[in-house]
Amino acid sequence: MFKINENYLKLPGSYLFSTIGKKVAAYQEKNPDRKIIRLGIGDVTQPLAPAVIEALHNAVDEMGDSATFHGYAPDLGYEFLRKAIAVNDYAQRGCDIQPDEIFVSDGAKCDSGNIQEIFSIDNKIAVCDPVYPVYVDTNVMAGRTGTYDSVKEMWSDVIYMPCTQENGFVPELPEAAPDIIYLCFPNNPTGSTITKSGLQAWVDYANRTGAVIIYDAAYEAYISEKDVPHSIYECEGARTCAIELRSFSKNAGFTGVRLGFTVVPRDLKAGDVPLHDLWARRHGTKYNGAPYIVQRAGEAVYSDAGKTQLKEQVAYYMKNAKIILEGLKKAGYSVSGGVNAPYIWLKTPGSMTSWEFFDHLLFKAGVVGTPGAGFGPSGEGYFRLTAFGSHENTIEAIERIKKLG
Ligand SMILES: *Cc1c(COP(=O)(O)O)cnc(C)c1O
Fold first, then answer.
1. How far, in whole angstroms, is CA 162 from its chain's centroid?
2. Protein residue whose Cα sits closest to atom 4 of ligand 1
């Protein structure tokens, strides 16, 4: 008789966005005339840039002609895209990353979930708290996280690194020694960032203790300040301790198109085994390549026209971020993020829990955000708003929140 992977049964229900959906639907039903403004889910709303659309159209035409048709893509990505990434995202920032160290995929969610497969089940992971839930849940599925304490909402074998107002939402180096460290900067959900010297300390720590850092740089395009690193490979020694995840979802609006990549430098080894070879084996066996037309669309992101258009797209969202940030400050809220990331992280007023504040905002202002507690225990007492809405809706939402007093 077959047996299931019992690790799946350990997963606490992830009710965050379904609970939000239900609450919003119930409120809308009772208040059919109320216009609800959604600043909750982290999804883009602007259409694809013209340069991307043009590349997609051209690639579709190629697929319709036997002379230019493309079948299976190379498992690890087309050379034209890997080269464009190596030049634009790395060489031009002074990072030494070769095209064959870049693995093209259909997005950073899959990669951030799959990467743990190449590590021993005995490895101990460390995550920020609050955190993007994929890192933890995929390690639960693999059986790496021990037992769940439903009161504390924590796993026995996970090292949690609290990110709160007290430490500026940047984790401190852990006392217990983790083997695998997940970092994400600019951060979802807190919108915080790390300085280059701050990240260098993590790279030094990982090299010193023999840990590996899995660095999620999905929001790199939103960085506006000078001292914030765009890639972990800007730090000295990162080639021997860090894997970097990137996505076209947030910088180019590809959430529904699907494209991302993972960088595994050849110098990153466990003893004398390069992780590069393990990930190449895993990717080549379980993944059959991102679509040709999508990789051509990705290439267009690095064209001159694409770069200009996408800079404007990011600026559009960051204008929203500024409106939210400044509006909330004026209304007396304690806020952070929103400068190098499309997320604003606010402290709930008084002693309101993050779910109480969710109800307050929905019922009184018709605005939907995301309760911080949904991202981990240290997210309690905080709340996330996103800059991914339309400009008009963002302005209206903030006006309504200001009127709450
Ligand atoms: C949105 C997001 C991603 C990107 O996921 P895709 O699968 O590439 O769309 C990765 N990491 C974080 C933290 C995110 O918020």
1. 18
2. 108
